[in-house]
Design brief:
Rossmann fold; globular
């Protein structure tokens, strides 16, 4: 089955790619992540994915698109609901690419993270797949999260500290500040 795998980052892709390959599916990686900010973080994650893809023989499509202003405008003023926009934007672009390029199915590495809203992801990607006539290949990759992170470390892959958007980075620093004040 010709499957497009939307990839949020290299560490999250390790076990997703392996799991699909073990099922006899050779995914094509797809990078589209306009949510990642600042640009230095975006670039670091993109380069890490390129290196991982080269090491593992993963075919990779890069849709380079960085636009902080567009992202901020679209999540304003509902910053706490930003994940909806983030998921929809990436699902839309991935499903459209899959449909335009003859893929039978698509999925996402976001499904490996225990920190993402799994049910919302599933709902958004299913709905978007139906819109474009591409099957959403649902897999709950979460049981492989820790193993994937460990394998990524062993491979020397860059490990980020937040989901990608500038607001998640802010939350990370606020938690550290709060913790240090105790």
């Amino acid at each position: 089955m010709k499957t497009l795998l939307h990839i949020c980052c290299a560490p999250c892709s390790v076990m997703c790619v392996d799991t699909l390959r073990n099922e006899g599916i050779e995914p094509v990686g797809y990078w589209f992540n306009p949510n990642i900010h600042p640009f230095t973080e975006y670039k670091q994650r993109r380069e890490a994915l390129k290196e991982y893809a080269e090491k593992t023989g993963l075919e990779l499509v890069l849709e380079d698109y960085y636009n902080l202003r567009e992202f901020v405008i679209n999540v304003t003023p509902e910053f706490d609901s930003r994940c909806v926009y983030c998921y929809e934007t990436r699902a839309e672009k991935a499903a459209e690419y899959a449909a335009d390029n003859g893929f039978e199915a698509y999925t996402t590495t976001l499904l490996i993270s225990p920190y993402q809203n799994h049910e919302l992801l599933k709902e958004v990607f299913e709905k978007t797949g139906e819109k474009y006539g591409v099957r959403f290949l649902y897999r709950d990759f979460r049981p492989y999260f820790r193993e994937g992170q460990q394998r990524a470390r062993e491979m020397g892959i860059y490990m980020q500290k937040y989901c990608g958007c500038v607001f998640s980075e802010e939350e990370r620093y606020n938690k550290k500040l709060f913790k240090n004040k105790k």
